[in-house]
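seq as requested:
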Amino acid sequence: LIRMEQRGVGRELMDKVVSNPLATLKQAGERTLYLTREAVVVLDKTGRAITTYTKNEFKTHILNVLKLIK
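C-alpha cells:
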C-alpha cells in the first residue's frame, strides 16, 4: 500500500479501476491488468495488487491500447 500511494494510487482509485475498467488484459503468471484513463492496476489470481501506476507513468503500449478504446 505504501508503494501504491507513492505512485499516486490510493485505495479509492484502485477500487475504481478494478470495478470499472475500460479494458482488462490477461498477463503471464495468472495476473490481470485493469486499465482506465487514470490508472493501471495489476492483480494476481488471489486479488493481491502486484503493481499500480497513474496516467503520468503510462508507457507507449498502454497509450496505444487507450487509443483503440473509444
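Helices lie at 2-6, 11-19, 60-68.
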